Amino acid sequence: MALIRLLQRKPDGAIVFREPSSDPIPTYAILSHTWGKEEVTLRDMEADADRSKTTSKAGWAKIQFCADQAAADGLQYFWVDTCCIDKKNAVELSGAINSMFWWYQNAARCYAYLSDVSTSEGARGERAWEKAFRTSRWFTRGWTLQELIAPREVDFFSAEGQRLGSKLSLAAGIQEVTGIPEKALRGDTLSSFSIRERRSWAERRTTTIGEDGAYCLIGIYGVAMVLNYGEGREHAFGRLEKKIHILYKDRLLRIDFEQYAVRFSLSSFPEAAQFVAREQELSKMYELL
Hints:
The structure is a single chain. It is built from 14 helices and nine strands. It is an alpha/beta fold. The protein is globular. InterPro entries: HET. It holds the Pfam family HET. Residues 28-127 form the Heterokaryon incompatibility domain.
């Protein structure tokens, strides 16, 4: 797992980096959002000594929101992908993407900031934001899939920073919008969902870069991949499928016969407890099946 670079909100409100180290990771909050045209980058945070240029960028509002909300929840550390990853460093970027699911899964709090959902029209009704919530761009992006699934808790916020609810309190509506079963939103292990079912959750989602369509599913399937931007979407998905095949074949967790829509598991048979794996027999069984 890659080391994580966190932001820290000081008691005086200043926001600084806590550089990656091998020390135990402190408790932290994490931000989930969709990227805009003017995001704050790692280079901005490092180069702008007085922060005047950085804080004037549109993307700063999300960082400030995350810092303030984390502080309100008793947390001084937080993570924002736009400025906590050195994207010019291929090794760091690859490590970060392969660790991303884990980072979201282990965050104490996850804040989903919906920049296209406003609560300023609340006079028309207490939940007038619901229509905008259901059509939010956040539900259409590839990377936000794992950001919805991985954390134990996800709190949704409007563009004004008003809390809309959690993924548990809004689970029924989220299922309708995304097609993701409520039991997945409520924390059922991903291994209880077939490979095909998990893939279906991403079918209506898009990524700016073609290869990211495959890379954003790394955590959903629990595999690791070396990133190769430029290989093309189809090739990236081909490599992902090979990784999935190897993982599920070698661990004997479950064989998904997607072509025939059939599930097979050794745990279905009482005799499996007495089964002793042998390479030759397993290979023949796999070939026949």
